[in-house]
Amino acid sequence: MKAVVYEQFGMRPELQTVPDPVPAADGVVLRVEASGVCRSDWHGWMGHDPDIALPHVPGHEIAGTVVAVGAGITRWREGDRVTLPFVSGCGRCPECQAGQQQVCRAQFQPGFTAWGSFAQFVALRYAEHNLVRLPENLDFVTAASLGCRFATSFRAVVQQGRARGGEWVAVHGCGGVGLSAVMIAHALGARVIAVDIGADKLERAAELGAEFVVNSREVDVVTAIREVTGGGAHLSLDALGHAQTCADSILCLRTQGRHVQVGLLVAEHGRPPLPMDAVIARELVIYGSHGMAAHAYPDMLGMIESGQLRPERLIGRRLTLGESVDALTGMDTFSGTGVQVIDRFN
């Protein structure tokens, strides 16, 4: 099969011919019909993820068709149209037994713990309870765009953040995760404030439901949000993953507000200083959010099928497998406002 492979961290990946995968006893092989290109893939390529062993094939936002099943698989068969969370739980650890597969102790992550979906085929472990059947009217490109950014945002806004209609929700960073959060919070009836340094991203956020936008290059973010909301946001999300956006997200909250850290903090931002004086004085709540378990997908898919959520509006460039190399290596520029998806693999 054809696959995008990198031999060293930070070294330009190449399109190569590699052996076709075979399913493990607890796994399946998918023909990849679409794969998102996510900033987490860029972090992996840069060497920020200790689970990656070289050589490596990136890609974790997957939609495809089952073409082979392992001996232990009973729920899935060839021809099934599926997607999956970027974290697949083992099903055996205490977290999985409690329904929290997104924080499994022995999680399988395509594109990180194993070769991923920048390829014509991908082998997936723990498939029995982690695959998600696609509704017939949901196309593969849209389904792939859900796998990390949109599903992660859904859990962050709905399950961790508990956003409610009429609340002020601030979203810091309007990349794929942030724009997804804007759309989801707006669909729930929240009043959304979007924060970014890019005028194009803020314009897109307004189109997707942000009531107010804040350009952090032009004004003090915390002051602006507290003024607009009359005291601070009820819920704020750092959708970027930076020491400054994390601090701004916490400090812009009103008393007993909720901060959700959804953007990945890595390298020098991995352990940022936090304004704990404000957390204590205003009884703020801080949550982490890491993906979403497969059993939680029906709520999200239901909102998509009903038309409340339209993730297809977030899709930007559609790429060939070869074009994904430039898309991956250029993700540090934060250019563009849409989710890039590979949909041609020949």
Automatic annotation (TrEMBL):
The organism's place on the tree of life at top rank: Bacteria
Residue ranges annotated for the Enoyl reductase (ER) domain, each copy included: 10-342
Cofactor entry: Zn(2+)
Keywords: Metal-binding, Oxidoreductase, Zinc
Pfam families: ADH_N, ADH_zinc_N
Family, as annotated: Belongs to the zinc-containing alcohol dehydrogenase family.
Name of the protein in its database record: Alcohol dehydrogenase
Gene giving rise to this polypeptide: adh
